[in-house]
Write a structure and sequence with these properties.
Blueprint lengths: L1 H19 L6 E2 L2 H6 L4 E5 L3 H6 L6 E2 L5 H4 L7 E6 L2 H13 L3 E7 L3
Parallel strand pairs: 1-5, 2-3, 2-4, 4-5
């Protein structure tokens, strides 16, 4: 019974780490910087389609978090700025992109 409990606790801790632990090495970007830096970085909008449709960011790759594993190859090989609606979405999308070999340098949080 103790081994099963250790395995369960390990999975719970991994789940909480991936979602709620901040990702180090990325900085918060201003909306103006995101709007004017299209040549230097690839902007990836990881919000839901409904949210990104209401607040369109020009030339951003709109790929919601659940689709990142399948469509990460559509993002060019540049530094990436992640657009997210909350901290959980920012953390999860940054970790997915980094695991796929992409360089995430910043994020922008869009408030509702």
């Amino acid at each position: 019974m103790s081994i099963a409990l250790v395995i369960l606790i390990t999975f719970i801790l991994l789940f909480l780490y991936q979602r709620y632990m901040p990702v180090f090495g990325i900085g918060k970007m201003d909306r103006n910087y995101v709007s004017y830096s299209k040549e230097d970085v690839a902007i990836v909008d990881t919000r839901d389609y409904q949210d990104s449709f209401n607040d369109i960011i020009e030339q951003a790759y709109s790929i919601p978090v659940p689709y990142l594993n399948r469509h990460f190859h559509d993002i060019p090989d540049k530094n990436i700025v992640v657009i997210a609606s909350d901290f959980v979405g920012k953390n999860v999308s940054t970790r997915i992109l980094r695991n796929k070999g992409k360089r995430v340098v910043g994020y922008h949080m869009v408030k509702d």
